[in-house]
Structures are given as structure tokens and as C-alpha cells.
User: What shape does this take?
Amino acid sequence: MSTAAPTTSPAPAPASASLAKRLGLLGALVALLAVLALPTPAGLPVAGQTMLAILAFAVIVWMTEALEYSVSAVVIAALIVFLLAYAPSVAKPDGADMGTGAALNLALSGFANSAVALVAAACFIASAMTATGLDRRIALTVLSKVGAQTHHIVIGAMVVGFLLSFIVPSTTARVACLMPIMMGFVLAFKVDRKSRFAALLVITTAQTASIWNVGVKTAAAQNMVAIGFIEKQLGAQITWGEWFVAAAPFAALMTVALFFIMTRMMKPEMKEIAGGQETIRQQLAELGPMTLNQWKLLAVVLVLLGFWSTEKVLHDFDTTSTTLAAVALMLFPRIGVMDWKQSQKGFPWGTVVLFAVGISVGSALLQTKAAGWLAQLIVGHLGLQMASAFAILMLLSAFLIVIHLGFASATALASTMIPIVISVLSTVQTPGINIVGMTMILQFVVSFGFILPVNAPQNMIAYGTDTFDAHDFVRTGIVITLTGVVLLVVFAVTYWPWLGLMVTRT
Assistant: This one.
């Protein structure tokens, strides 16, 4: 019995959506020109004002999805090149214009960031999982061990999401793998697609993926954005293990809370699925025994996970280097699990380009002193100069949660906001504030895309199953977000200070 959900041709975009995108693009262009036309404020270089104009364009385009993300990345890179070319160099404000050569270096600087290589390598691992079917086998194996009770099936789906977050470093790939399996169960169990059980299963799967984007450094591209800026701006490294120690307890408690929130707000119609376990076992049996390529891939990812978790403890190999080595093994003739042609099936090159250009935008904001000027403005107007680390964390967290409502990509949000966050934290005079640790915690908040289906690609994949209405996602997502905020407060007054992540311990 096939587990794939029935496929349908994508419906054409409604006229209202097309109009909104056209208005969004028009608004972005107006904002770009308006900021460029303003008198240059004191203390802000012309190049910095130019980058703020490009930032305004980028934020509006990303918030309205006026352009496809990959297309927007190319457009933004072109704007950096041709607008900065006519701005004086920050180092010599009275000298000649920067020129296209220097501007091009800024526009492409993100491609030289090691985090981009890690994201690209992560996409290869996700492709290998799909090509060999190992992700599907892991999911079915776990689900075959749980009972036929609906709550147990939900727990099984959450466990699968948790396990895959370690070995499939792409949220979209994880959820894209799991949704056909979940829909296959719904159809095989003869459960109504619009039932509360189907909605419970699908929404919980998507939200679990978002939660473990927080818990595991390599689980999501937006984490790599933050790591890239932390390394470049602050000259500090956060190992896989350090991230996990700081974030995993938070994600674990969020997962427990998610189970209780979802099973009570989306209480299933039945307590048990008749013949459910037999259906799962039958689907697993149809896969046959583990193939040689699946065994090889499993060995590679487990060894890779071992290298990640022991970084700076047993060895000095960084996450990017070990991941690139793993990809080389996966593609190597005879030893590997797929060839280059197979790896390119559905490979998200647009995501990699967006990621790199997003880092370029952040780097250009820093080098043109736009981020520092904006940070001074924020600190002065919000009275953060001598605020406590806790107050700063809560205020910036609230800001990130609210602004995320307008973004459909946490990667774009991190690219836009993390350089500014670092500049704000560098500007305040709070004694002993741990800028690296605070930035990492605020990056956790960047992954709080729990409220709207459009807040994350995994949410849209879930919404595409047509098992729930948007208001179901919103009402449960608001409660999940509020729970996350409560846990932020608890961890900010207990665990994270104990680790020295908010204020450096003396």
C-alpha cells in the first residue's frame, strides 16, 4: 500500500495575492528611493545610508514575498554592487567613489563564509537521505514501535522529528519527508482528512521540527547565519556541543509542552486506530531489508554526529570541515551512496544563494557602519544603555517574535536582524554582558515561527496537506509561542545565567 499522499497540481495564485506582491514590490522600491533621498544623518556614512536603503528594500520584499527568495537574493546583490559603487569608501569619505570592484566584493562576501559551505553540505546530506530512503525507513521504524493509541502515534511522530533533526540538517527536507508518511497513515487508517486527529498529527509534526531547530545547531540554516556573524563580528566559535547544552533542555521542555497543548487543543475523535500498527508494519515490510547504501549512509551520519558532538573536546575539527568530508565520502565512487546527478534532484540552490547574499547584506551593514549607527539609535530610544541582560533579552526577544510574523523565512530574518542584534549588544554598557551567549539565545527566538502557516516553509508544507484550517494553526501557535516566552523567562533567570551565557561569570 502506497504511503504517498495524493498529489494535486498547485492552484493558481489568487488575484489578491498577485496584487499584494505587486504592491509589495512597489513599496520596496519606494522605500529604497525614499531612504536614498533623505539627508544623510550625522555619524552615518553615505555608504551606510545606501545599505539602510537596500535593507529597507530587502525587508519589504522578504516580508511580502514580492519576489521569490532566490530571485530577491540576486536582485539585492545587484543593488549592493551598483548603488554602493557610487558611494565614497567608509575609510575615505572625502575620496573617490567605491567603484563596482569594491562593491562587488561586498556583495559576494557572503559566499566566502564557511557557514555557506555548511548549508550547502547539509543540503547534500538531505539529498542523500531522500535518494537512499533512509529518512523514510527511520520514520517508519520508530512509528512501528509505538502503540495504536492516537496519543502514542503523536508521540512517535514527535520522536521521529527529534531524531531526524540530528541527521537531516534541513527543516524543509525533514518535514517534506514526514508529511507523505503522515498522510499515508491518515488515508490507510481511513481517517477523515479534515479530522482533528489528522490536523493534530500534521501540525505537531511541523511544530516539532521548528522546536528542534532551536535545540540542534545543525538542524536549520538560520542557525548557520548566526554562527557566521558571530565568528566574523566577534571572532568567537560556538561548538555543536556548546549549542546543544544551551538549547536542548529548552527544546525538550518545549516538546513536552507541545504534546500537552496539541492533544488538548486538537483532541482527536478516537483514542485508538484499529489496525494502525499493522498498517505501519506492512508499510515498513514493503521497504524490504536495509540496502547497502542505507547502511553506508547511516554509518557516515552517525560518525559525523560523533565528530559534531565532540568538537573542541576530542578533536579540533570544526563542524563545516567534518560535514564537507562526509559529503565527499557520500559522493565518492564505490564508497559513496549517490552520484552527482542524483544529488542534484531537487537540490535547493536558491536557498544557498539566499543564505550567502543574506550574509553579504549583514556584512555590508557592518562594514559601512550602518548596523552600528542603527544600533546606537535603538539603544538610545529604548533606554538599553545600562539595562540588565535580562531586560535586554526580553525586549529584543519580543521584537524578534513580532517581526517574525511578517517573515516567511527564518533565514531571511536572521540575515537581517542578527548583525543588528550583535551591534546593539556591543553598544550597551551593561557590565559583563556576554555578547556571544546573548546572540545565541536570541537566535533561538528567531526560530519561533509557530504562529502563522506562512512563517516557515515547514508550516506551509503542513498547510498544503489540507488537513487543517489556518485558524487552527494560529490558535495553537499562539499558545505554543506564549509557552516559549514563559520558558525564555525561566531559563533567563536560572539555567542560562548558570552557564554564563548572559553575563560573564567572574
Q: What stands out?
A: The chain is about 70% helix and 0% strand. Confidence is low (pLDDT under 50) at residues 1-12. The CA atoms of residues 326 and 447 lie 26 Å apart.
